[in-house]
Amino acid sequence: MSEETVKLSDLMTLKTASEKIVVDGLKITPRGLWSWCHNGAHGVKMKFTRFAGRIVLTEADVLEYLATVRALESEGSKQGRKLGSPRRHASGEQRARQLEETEKRLKSRGI
User: Fold this and answer.
1) In the chain, where the domains are located
2) Whether pTM exceeds 0.85
3) Mean pLDDT, the chain, whole residue set
């Protein structure tokens, strides 16, 4: 089993990584990186390490994660939003329908 050697100088905190890394012309926030580490996308989580109580990662970890997710997206694994795409909010009509359905469920449960 080979062990990967990483220089201490290659490790970045989430804040440092968010300042250096740009995806499709958009900066990624530390919270976005944290989400990729803990939740992932398309069933893939980004590799990270804890060092001195902080989450640290390398640029190679981020690039590997992005390449994997992009490959899954291009294969047609569209289980969620693409990286960096804005969330879509329900239209007024859709929202009204959602509220109506919720009210029906609450009434049926006596709430």
Assistant:
1) 8-80
2) no
3) 82
